[in-house]
């Protein structure tokens, strides 16, 4: 039997792939535990500078595998425990200083919306659809949907999505700010990888710290956030990468007049 989630690292890019296409990449117990383990490993590795979250098959993620849960006779306590396992994986991604891009083709629904929201930058196909749909089965949102959806799109729009039997189109998801880009369906993964490679080719650590600061802000006072910003930029300025980039920027910013004046002054 194939692994429910695949993980690989190539040239600084950690790729986490949901791998249950026959079940629309819905989470059963094995998938949940694999998710918790792999996300923790991905953000802890020194050789991972960016993470790409994608999925096999025609759909990104349908959330929890309700049929598997029903067949397994999971109790309320068991379902809550399993949600906690998946939540720990979500927190590994959102609380880390590693930027995460998602390639979310096809349909994303239910808890899959929470998995999508664990990314920092999401790419979908132009034919993609995204929704909540929990109430269709008498269930309530989980896997960070109520924690992150309102922050992403605003409370009123979040309520529209969770209180209606609605799937957003890709264009609507971009307009709402739920995802960053909608591209041709066959270009979703390629575009997501290009975003990740942009981070890796640039000031990778700075992108990661910027992500961490933005993610942390809602839980803090303004004073706490400003103090962290000050500490973080101070620490960044001491790195060899920042010093080299600042020096290069300064050199490129000099005008021909500046250079001529410097030469004239040096010749006195």
Descriptive notes:
By secondary structure, this protein is of the alpha/beta class. It has two domains: 5-201, 2-enoyl-CoA Hydratase, Chain A, domain 1 (Alpha-Beta Complex); 204-266, no CATH class. The protein is built from twelve helices and nine strands. The chain has helices at residues 29-44, 66-72, 76-94, 111-117, 145-153, 155-162, 170-176, 188-201, 204-216, 222-237, 240-253, 256-266, and strands spanning 5-10, 13-18, 50-55, 100-104, 107-108, 121-125, 129-131, 167-169, 181-183. It has a six-stranded mixed beta sheet with strand order 1-2-3-4-6-9, with helices on both faces. Strands 5-7-8 form a three-stranded mixed beta sheet. The longest helix has 19 residues, at 76-94. This is Enoyl-CoA hydratase/isomerase family protein. Belongs to the enoyl-CoA hydratase/isomerase family. InterPro entries: ClpP/crotonase-like_dom_sf, Enoyl-CoA_hydra/iso, Enoyl-CoA_hydra_C. It comes from Microbacterium terregens.
The share of residues in helices is 40-55%
CATH class type of the largest domain: Alpha Beta
Structural class of the helices, strands and pairings? alpha/beta
Please state how the strands of the largest beta sheet are arranged side by side: 1-2-3-4-6-9
- The tally of structural domains comes to 2
Order of helices and strands: EEHEHHEEHEEHHEHEHHHHH
Q: For the terminal residues, how far apart are their CA atoms?
A: 79 Å
Compute the CA-based radius of gyration: 22 Å
Strand content: 5-15%
How many distinct helices?
12
CATH topology of the largest domain: 2-enoyl-CoA Hydratase, Chain A, domain 1
Main sheet attributes: strand count, strand direction, barrel closure: 6 strands, mixed
Number of strands: 9
Question: What is the second-level CATH architecture of the largest domain?
Answer: Alpha-Beta Complex
CATH level 4 superfamily of the largest domain: 2-enoyl-CoA Hydratase, Chain A, domain 1
Low-confidence stretches: none
């Amino acid at each position: 039997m194939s692994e429910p989630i695949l993980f690989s690292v190539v040239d600084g890019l950690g790729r986490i792939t949901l791998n249950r296409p026959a079940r629309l990449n819905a989470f059963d117990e094995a998938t949940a535990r694999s998710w918790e383990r792999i996300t923790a490993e991905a953000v802890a590795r020194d050789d991972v500078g960016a993470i790409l979250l994608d999925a096999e098959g025609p759909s990104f993620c349908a959330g929890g595998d309700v049929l598997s849960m029903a067949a397994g006779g999971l109790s309320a306590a068991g379902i809550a425990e399993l949600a906690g396992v998946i939540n720990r994986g979500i927190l590994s991604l959102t609380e880390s200083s590693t930027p995460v891009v998602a390639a979310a083709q096809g349909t994303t629904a239910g808890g899959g919306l929470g998995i999508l929201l664990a990314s920092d930058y999401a790419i979908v196909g132009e034919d993609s659809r995204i929704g909540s749909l929990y109430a269709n089965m008498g269930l309530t949102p989980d896997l960070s949907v109520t924690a992150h959806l309102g922050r992403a799109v605003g409370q009123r729009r979040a309520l529209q999505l969770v209180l209606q039997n609605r799937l957003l189109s890709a264009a609507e998801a971009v307009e709402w700010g739920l995802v960053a880009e909608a591209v041709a369906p066959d270009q979703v993964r390629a575009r997501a990888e290009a975003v990740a490679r942009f981070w890796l080719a640039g000031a990778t650590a700075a992108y990661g710290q910027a992500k961490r600061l933005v993610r942390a802000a809602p839980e803090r006072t303004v004073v706490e956030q400003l103090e962290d910003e000050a500490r973080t930029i101070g620490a960044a300025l001491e790195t060899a990468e920042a010093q080299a980039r600042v020096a290069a920027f300064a050199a490129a910013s000099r005008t021909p007049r500046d250079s001529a004046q410097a030469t004239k002054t040096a010749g006195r």
